[in-house]
């Protein structure tokens, strides 16, 4: 990425983070419990934006995508189609992440993952990346997979929310030091 493009990309990531923080702090529909909004909102924590965690990758589509049932944090289930896989390198280690499509007909991709930071620096149940074709697709089946945009599911902020769990195929042994860090559970007790 040339320096001007990198500056614009970093600025866009930072602006997205600021918008999310403002929404969480002020909006009535925020997943943050009401008593922690406004001036009491502790804020969100992120890793520094790092271009080493931004990839332009071909989605290696599976010939026969399978429908998978994913358990949720509230003992429920959701279904997705496992449509393909992204392969890339993190700190010299070859890794892969499956990409899932919702079974509701949407053409966005959901890329959940757990990594070596999960439960320590980041939310224990894992983080998500959503890929929208209009924003993230840059070729026939080439996508921008930007781990700097990894975010916590809503259940990380409030146990009243139900979130799909990361399928074991997307559990990575390497640390992904990009995106959102854990929200401090001790702020509101039983988390």
Total number of domains: 1
Total helices: the number is 2
Instruction: Please tell me how large the radius of gyration is.
Output: 17 Å
H/E series, N to C? HEEEEEEHE
What are the segments in which pLDDT stays under 50 over at least 5 consecutive residues?
Answer: none
Count of DSSP E strands?
7
Distance between termini?
40 Å
Summarize the main sheet.
3 strands, antiparallel
Helix content: 10-25%
Q: Indicate the structural class.
A: alpha+beta
Give the strand order of the largest sheet, numbering strands 1, 2, ... along the chain.
Answer: 2-3-4
Envelope shape: globular
* Beta-strand share of residues: 25-35%
What number is the mean pLDDT?
93
Summarize this structure briefly:
It is built from 2 helices and 7 strands; from the N terminus they run αββββββαβ. By secondary structure, the protein is of the alpha+beta class.
Task: Explain the overall architecture.
15% of the residues lie in helices and 29% in strands. The chain is an alpha+beta fold and 191 residues long. It has one domain. The model has no long low-confidence stretch (mean pLDDT 93).
Descriptive labels:
191 residues, alpha+beta, three-stranded antiparallel sheet, two-stranded antiparallel sheet
How do the helices and strands line up, and which of them pair or pack?
Blueprint: H1 3-26, E1 54-58, E2 60-71, E3 77-90, E4 93-102, E5 109-113, E6 127-131, H2 133-136, E7 142-146
């Amino acid at each position: 990425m040339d320096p001007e493009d990198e500056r614009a990309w970093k600025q866009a990531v930072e602006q997205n983070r600021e918008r999310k923080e403002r929404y969480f702090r002020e909006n009535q529909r925020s997943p943050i419990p009401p008593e922690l909004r406004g001036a009491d909102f502790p804020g969100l924590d992120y890793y520094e934006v790092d271009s080493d965690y931004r990839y332009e990758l071909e989605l290696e589509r599976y010939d026969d995508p399978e429908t998978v049932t994913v358990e949720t944090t509230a003992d429920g289930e959701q279904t997705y189609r496992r449509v393909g896989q992204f392969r890339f390198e993190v700190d010299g280690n070859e890794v892969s992440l499956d990409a899932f499509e919702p079974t509701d007909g949407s053409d966005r991709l959901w890329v959940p993952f757990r990594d070596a930071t999960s439960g320590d620096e980041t939310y224990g149940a894992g983080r998500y990346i959503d890929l929208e074709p209009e924003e993230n697709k840059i070729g026939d089946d080439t996508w921008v997979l930007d781990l700097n945009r990894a975010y916590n599911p809503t259940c990380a902020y409030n146990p009243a929310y139900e979130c799909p769990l990361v399928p074991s195929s997307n559990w990575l042994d390497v640390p992904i030091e990009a995106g959102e860090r854990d929200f401090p559970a001790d702020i509101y007790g039983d988390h």
